[in-house]
Write a structure and sequence with these properties.
94 residues; single chain; alpha+beta
Length: 94
């Protein structure tokens, strides 16, 4: 007999355009990590800017950190609407 695995996802439906998308706990964890990375990059860039205020020539050679765009699960990717309904969906997969 095959074991069934339960998968829990969140189903999002945009009230504006009808777009439907799903996410799970892994997606939430990835977005949380992306937010921390974005905050760290911003702080690093701010530190570099403060070093340059005093005319520190070596600070020019410190590379800028890229800005990380963090996906917002509460906003529709297609139309940008925040009018989103959410429901929890459970799937049984063999």
């Amino acid at each position: 007999m095959a074991k069934t695995k339960k998968i829990i996802e969140t189903k999002c439906t945009c009230k504006g355009c009808g777009n439907v998308w799903f996410y799970d706990k892994r997606d939430e964890a990835q977005i949380k990590a992306d937010k921390w990375e974005a905050a760290g990059n911003s702080m690093s860039n701010a530190g570099k800017s403060m070093m340059c205020c005093g005319g520190c020539l070596p600070a020019i050679f410190i590379p800028e950190k890229d800005k990380v765009k963090v996906k917002d699960l509460n906003v529709c990717e297609k139309c940008g609407s925040k009018a989103v309904t959410k429901e929890t969906i459970e799937h049984n997969v063999e």
